[in-house]
Each structure stands twice: as structure tokens, then as C-alpha cells.
Amino acid sequence: MSEDKFLMNFSNIVLSYAVNATIHLGLSPDPATGKVSIDLNRAKDLIDMLDVLKEKTKNNLNDEEEKIMSETLSNLKNLYLNALNTKEEIKE
After folding, report:
1. Mean pLDDT over residues 41-46, rounded?
2. Are 38 and 26 in contact (CB under 8 A)?
3. Which residues contact 83 (CB under 8 A, 6 or more apart)?
4. Are the C-beta atoms of residues 62 and 4 closer than 8 Å to each other?
5. Residue 18: which pLDDT band, with cuts at 50, 70 and 90?
6. SS3 labels along the chain
7. Domain limits, the chain
């Protein structure tokens, strides 16, 4: 397998979206700026894109890919809900 094919496997695509979502949730610094910032709308967009990808690839993933997709989405949704709850608590 060439390195290009390895870099473009399904799991890496899912994890790339996940890393970007965590950056927008304020859990990781932006690699371009080194700063932590929160953009919950963008994080939600990325999570929604993964949901669409999950639906469109239904019954076409191997067990490992399905597990990565399901666990990643579940974790991201929980992190997003925590971020929303934290934002609401700060407003009060």
C-alpha cells in the first residue's frame, strides 16, 4: 500500500473531521495559530457532516470503520453537548 493510500483511508478521514471539531470545541489549539478558540456552530457543522457520511456509507463499512465512526460521533456529540451546557451556565 502506498503512503498516499494509507493517508486517505476511511478512518483517517473520520479522524480528520474529529480533530477539527475538537479544535472548534475549544479542546485543542488551532495548529495554524496555536490559540484555543470556540466556534460551536462550526463544530456542529463538522459533526453533522460526519452524520451524513455515516448515513451515506451505511452497510459499506467494515467492522473497524463502523466502530471508529460510531465511537467518534458519540464522543463528539457528548463533547458538543458539554460545551453547550457550559456556555449556558456561563450566561446565567
Report:
1. 97
2. yes
3. 25, 26, 38, 40, 43
4. no
5. very high
6. CCHHHHHCCHHHHHHHHHHHHHHHCCCCCCCCCCCCCCCHHHHHHHHHHHHHHHHHCCCCCCHHHHHHHHHHHHHHHHHHHHHHHHHHHHHC
7. 3-91
Burial profile 21-53: b = 16 or more Cβ within 10 angstroms, e = fewer: bbbbbbeeeeeeeeeeeeeeeebbebbeebeeb
**CA 90 to mean position of chain CA atoms:** 24
Q: The pTM is what?
A: 0.85
| Other residues' Cβ atoms within 10 Å of the Cβ of residue 83 | 18
Cell of 47: 459533526
Neighbours of 84 (CB within 10 A): 14
CB of 16 closer than 8 Å to CB of 49: no
Which residue's C-alpha cell is 465511537?
71
